[in-house]
Design a protein that fits this description.
By secondary structure, the protein is an alpha+beta fold. 66% of the residues lie in helices and 9% in strands.
Length: 666
């Protein structure tokens, strides 16, 4: 309890990182480019925009000065940086003018200092008022920071009553659900508090890890207390009953924790470090939950066992007879249906269209409606910064001309086309030259009309890179939100193969050791992996884009977290199979275990759907939806497909399982 109190306080000192680019490896091109730009130049890429309505040119220039005066705002760019606005606008290139000034509306681009997004965007909102609009990467970060705390509280307020209700229905004591939640809740608080040694966690970890740990490890507490309840009926001494319950349930809890533990360890091998951040946190959480259930919960239960006795109630759900017989009768249709669905599902899940960032804010928020307003007036706009070696102004002028001719590049701001290639920088004020030249590099700011990600945006990045490399043998660098997302795409796609292979291999090894069989791990993994493919194929058939980080994480989380259902069913079936035929053993096992598996699946599914409902962060929301749907699909597959496979492959299982000792019919 002392450790819990200390960790409850310590968790408030752990900072949360909302910037996905910080989790790219150090050797990623965009990370290297950002390091070079930070060393050479002040300010970052102007990834934010403000649209002011009904302004004259003079009013727009005055507003630009006010915006630049806000502490933390830099690189404010407007029309006067691209053309001489002292000349009549009709004389200038109209496409360039309309990128910044259209129908009396002025669009400004600017940078915001990292780490202070909330305070700075609030100051900008105060300046622009309700009638004008702001959008951009820093605003998205600020919005997520503001919403995260509220949404976690909202998710918890919804989730805890639902879990308590599920547990009350599944037990025969009003107190037992409180003991379950206390044991796992303590381990969750300790896990969150010990993050102080990591320094910071990602927004995905902060939002997902605590309630995922709760949902996945509640089973351990349920296993132990159900076993304790069984021994209480046979023994008078509660301590002796608890000793035997701990001894009996240890192997089941250890096997359940091991598959989840090793599955989550695979996440820590991701190059994209949001995965390893979440993986380390979940591995730590599973270990703490296991210790809590085997050390803290027995002590807590023995203190309050008299209250458990006093708060007994009758089962609240009616007992359904012959569940196993009904399911067994459907074994052939179940197998045929899965065989028909599995190939299209496998192909579809690999053809889903993906989002690699956090996506756009919903339109019912200020950030979302502002973005829609800006797009309606000025269209898409994604800035990039190109850094090339300084020195040859003639070569730089040629490059800028070529870049302006590239499809989807709407403007290129450089020293050579704003100040002029014939004017030496040494003769000008540093305020003018510093935004374009450092000691070693020349900076070219590109405005494009693509989205921040997608085939069009990624092809443009490759084209800009190739165009610059024609002029320079030395390395050139690209910086920008779309460039970061391009790197994330390339890295997480490689991660997908590695992490999935590791997860399947480690879970297969745990299953092999648990069941001492070659065929049983194959049967169990086939069952859960089929559920994973069906889950991940839904976005393709519904023509919805899927956040790739969510896709990658859920393919591991669903497998690691729901293979426990298959273990529970198969472990009981193996024991029953020693005394009866395969069909009879499957019927008996289903009758006894379907309810326990249903409770576990309903808790995990509730967690997922509540994350989906409460989170405005598209990454967290997509993980929630996939988790909720995945838990239900895994439950269906374990209840219908797994028994069918156990019966169909019974002879193979007998021959490939060490000391199976299965019952042989005379």
């Amino acid at each position: 309890m002392v450790l819990t109190i200390l960790c409850s306080l310590a968790q408030f000192t752990v900072s949360v990182n909302y910037d996905m680019k910080d989790y790219l490896p150090e050797d990623a091109p965009s990370t290297e480019a950002m390091d070079v730009m930070e060393q050479e130049f002040d300010g970052s890429v102007p990834t934010n925009r403000v649209m002011m309505q009904d302004l004259t040119l003079q009013e727009a220039l005055a507003f630009k000065e006010k915006l630049a005066a806000i502490n933390g705002v830099s690189n404010v760019t407007w029309l006067d940086d691209t053309i001489d606005i002292k000349q009549p606008l009709e004389m200038a290139d109209q496409e360039t003018v309309e990128n910044y000034y259209k129908d009396g509306n002025a669009l400004f681009s600017f940078s915001i200092r990292e780490g202070e997004e909330v305070a700075i965007t609030d100051a900008i909102y105060d300046l622009i008022g309700e009638d004008n609009a702001m959008a951009g990467e820093s605003l998205n970060t600020a919005t997520q920071q503001k919403m995260a705390g509220k949404e976690s509280m909202y998710a918890g307020a919804l989730l805890v009553p639902i879990i308590i209700l599920i547990l009350i229905v599944s037990t025969t004591s009003w107190l037992e659900p409180i003991l379950f939640l206390t044991a796992i809740g303590v381990s969750v608080l300790i896990n969150m508090g010990t993050n102080i040694f990591l320094g910071e966690v990602s927004f995905v970890t902060q939002s997902v890890a605590p309630i995922l740990q709760l949902a996945v490890s509640l089973d351990y507490a349920i296993f132990l207390l159900h076993s304790f309840s069984d021994y209480r009926k046979k023994l008078a001494d509660p301590k002796e009953a608890m000793q035997l319950a701990m001894k009996k349930s240890f192997s089941a809890i250890a096997a359940s924790a091991s598959t989840t533990f090793f599955g989550f360890i695979a996440l820590s091998f991701m190059n994209f470090e949001i995965g390893s951040d979440l993986g380390i946190n979940l591995v730590k959480g599973i270990l703490l939950s296991f210790i809590s259930v085997m050390v803290f919960l027995p002590a807590l239960t023995l203190l309050f066992y008299k209250w458990i006795d006093k708060t007994q109630h009758k089962p609240l759900l009616p007992s359904l007879k012959n569940k196993g017989s009904i399911v067994v009768k459907l074994r052939v249709p179940s197998l045929i249906l899965v065989l028909l669905l599995i190939v299209p599902a496998f192909l579809a899940q690999s053809q889903t269209s993906f989002i690699y960032g956090i996506g756009e804010q919903p339109e019912n928020t200020r950030a979302g409606s502002d973005l829609a307003t800006i797009k309606e007036q000025f269209g898409e706009s994604t800035p990039m910064v190109l850094l090339v070696p300084r020195g040859d102004t003639a070569k730089e002028a040629e490059l800028v001309n070529d870049l302006e001719d590239v499809d989807h590049v709407t403007s290129a701001l450089a020293y050579v086309n704003t100040v002029g290639s014939v004017i030496p920088p040494e003769y000008l004020n540093e305020d003018i030259t510093d935004q374009f030249y450092s000691e070693n590099y020349s900076r070219i700011i590109l405005q494009t009309d693509t989205k921040t990600e997608g085939d069009e945006a990624f092809q443009l990045i490759e084209q800009v890179q190739e165009t610059a490399e024609k002029y320079y043998e030395e390395k050139v660098y690209l910086v920008g939100e779309s460039v970061t997302l391009y790197d994330i795409k390339n890295i997480v796609q490689k991660d997908n193969k590695l992490v999935n292979t590791l997860t399947i291999a480690t879970v297969a090894l745990v299953l092999f050791v648990t069941f001492r069989s070659i065929s049983i791990p194959v049967v169990l993994l086939s069952t859960i992996q089929s559920a994973v493919w069906l889950n991940l194929s839904v976005p393709y058939f519904t023509d919805a884009s899927l956040v790739y980080v969510g896709y990658l994480l859920i393919s591991i989380i669903q497998l690691a977290a729901t293979v426990d259902y298959a273990i529970l069913l198969t472990d009981a079936y193996k024991e029953d199979r020693k005394e009866m035929s395969a069909l009879e053993a499957v019927k008996k096992t289903l009758d006894e275990k379907i309810f326990a598996i249903g409770i576990s699946a309903s808790i995990l599914s509730s967690v997922g759907f509540i994350l989906w409902i409460t989170s405005s962060n598209p990454v967290v929301s997509s993980i929630g939806l996939l988790l909720g749907r995945g838990a239900l699909l895994s439950f269906i597959m374990v209840v219908f497909l797994l028994p069918a496979m156990l019966v169909v492959f019974d002879k193979v299982i007998v021959k490939t399982t060490w000391k199976a000792n299965f019952y042989k019919e005379k």
